[in-house]
Amino acid sequence: MLGQGVQPNAFTLSSILKACSQLQHLPLGSSLHGTITTRGFASNRVIACALIDMYGRARVLEGARRVFDELPQPDPVSLLDMYGKCGDVGCAKFVFDGNWVSWTAMLGVYCHNGEFESVLGLVREWGVADVYSFATILRGCSGLAAARQGKEVHCQYVRKGGWRDVVVESALVDLYAKCGSVDFAHRLFMRMEERNLITWNAMIGGFAKNGRGEEAVELFEEMVREGMRPDGISFVNVLFACSHNGLVDQGKRYFDLMRMEYGIRPGVVHYTCMVDLLGRAELIEEAESLLESADCRYDHSLWAVLLGACTKCSDYVTAERVAKKMIQLEPEFHLSYVLLGNIYRSVGRWNEALEIRKLMEERGVKKMPGKSWVESEKKQKGSPGFDFSIVGKSMGEAV
């Protein structure tokens, strides 16, 4: 475009920044930031928001803050968004000024950073502002698999006249699917007049993660036939479905399709699904070869999946090699030591198991306790409970 003498406008620049943000290509985005400044677009609010989003996703707080400070009339919502994208929830809480507009932004900050219990806590304190905040609240319920609270939010949404909103209804499909009510989620899905990619992904993922892999694959194929272009999340869902239903050949085909036809670069989650798929089929050598050639081969979590497959197949030779590699990649990750120690004990190599235990103590590596959520009456066990009755009454009263 520049070679033909066509000068970029604000829309063009913001579109390129969005691409940089999605790809997390910080060097290109930073270079473009310089071009934006020299061309006099730095004060454009749309471009500034795109820059904040790019720096935020890359966790470069100083870059995002610099862009915000250069805005002619900065507002609290932009500041909240900046801190949220950068993962600084503490600073976001500090600037939260307690009006309805910033309340909605604060909900987004909590959701973006996975603090779903804080989303519901904020709803307990403030109630529900408008129809547009329902999708964010439902995301919070989904993140906690809080079925009862989600139903109450659904009822409140209907009471307020909400209907045929693709964003909210997509969030409802996701909620019910994650809470195990797959048939109800599918009924909602089938009744929707409009579906976007998020809707399709939610339903495909719902089938995949509730043991209905063949239906997930069928729905993926239907989505493609209807002209919806799958994204990385779509392929995560369909690969997960193939993995948990023994569809090895189909899984391999989708993995190749993602790269070759759609140009999607596989990430850690895609490789995790593939290693799990091959491991369940006891194709350990092929799984290890796949990891060795992956761009993200230095991520220890991938090797942990392979290690799990090795132990299930009783391939202790490969398991020992993989466990040692995990310790090299992440010396402070407790699970690597625990699994390697278990391998030695399972084959009667007690002295080596003891040496691993000593190595953990020398390096100060401690086994971390797990944590789970249990829903009981009106409380979420595992974090401070709350009374959610202010959001809505029982399901039967609403519908």
Short description:
It is built from 23 helices and 2 strands.
Descriptive notes:
It is a single chain. With 399 residues, this protein is mostly helical. The protein has four domains: 1-74; 114-194; 195-265, no CATH class; 288-366, Tetratricopeptide repeat domain (Serine Threonine Protein Phosphatase 5, Tetratricopeptide repeat, Alpha Horseshoe). Helix content is 67%, strand content 2%. It contains 23 helices and two strands. The protein has helices spanning 10-23, 26-38, 45-57, 61-69, 76-85, 89-95, 100-112, 116-126, 134-144, 147-159, 166-178, 182-191, 197-208, 213-225, 232-243, 248-260, 268-280, 284-292, 300-312, 316-329, 334-346, 350-363, 395-398; strands at residues 374-376, 379-381. The chain has a two-stranded antiparallel ribbon with strand order 1-2. α1 (10-23) packs parallel to α3, α9 (134-144) runs parallel beside α11 and α17 (268-280) runs parallel beside α19. The longest helix has 14 residues, at 10-23. One of its GO terms (biological process) is RNA modification. Pfam families: E_motif (PF20431), PPR (PF01535), PPR_2 (PF13041).
